[in-house]
Amino acid sequence: MSVAGTQQHVDKTQKATMKIPNVLDFLTKAERDRAIFVRPTLGKELEAVDGIGHNFFPQCLFLSAKLMTLQKGTVIPFHAHANKEKFYLLLDGNNLQVTMATNEKGRHEIRTVELMRGDVLFIPTVCPHCVRYCPQHYPDPCKVLVIASSQNSDDIYWEDGVEALISNGSSQ
Q1: What sign for the dihedral angle of Cα 14, 113, 96, 66?
Q2: pLDDT > 60? residue 97
Q3: Which end of the chain is more exposed for a tag (fewer CB within 10 A), N or C?
Q4: C-alpha closest to that of 10 among 105, 166, 152
Q5: How far apart are CA 33 and CA 15, in angstroms?
Q6: Which residue, 91, 152, 100, is CA-closest to 124?
Q7: Per residue in 133-154, pLDDT tens?
Q8: In which element (H, E) is residue 33 found?
Q9: Are 121 and 131 in contact (CB under 8 A)?
Q10: How many other C-beta atoms are found inside a 10 Å radius of the C-beta of residue 158?
Q11: In a 3-state reduction of DSSP, which class is residue 136?
Q12: Which residues have CB under 8 Å from 157's CB, separation 6+?
């Protein structure tokens, strides 16, 4: 997996369009103090559901399907994928917030989408996004089915300073 500031398999055009915001700019002081910053990893927040031995999606040859489990207060910092599109399907839980930085026709726009159980969200290629699970009245973890158009895990680009966020556990 790539580390902050590195780009793998990204051409010059993609590098120029990939401006990754900082998640701290979108959190209040109280949210920062309670946040648990993570970079999802297999065996922790992610469980493969399309690998050898799994029959959940046997027809997936090029797609990747993973079940992501997030605890209350979890924040996944801004990141983008150079060569893959993703769909998030919220299976269990409420109030999963995904903030996306879009650049359509030269206009930069930040928008936040709140997913409720059963909602599906499309994340286009090279679209910086962060994920927050901060439910008001739902203490249990949420489960998100993440379907990606590629199984390449090396095409990720993280916001600057992500290592410090994750190692500190909060922004202070």
Answers
A1: negative
A2: yes
A3: C
A4: 152
A5: 32
A6: 100
A7: 987 767 788 999 998 887 677 7
A8: helix 29-34
A9: no
A10: 24
A11: coil
A12: 2, 6, 7, 10, 18, 20, 79, 80, 81, 82
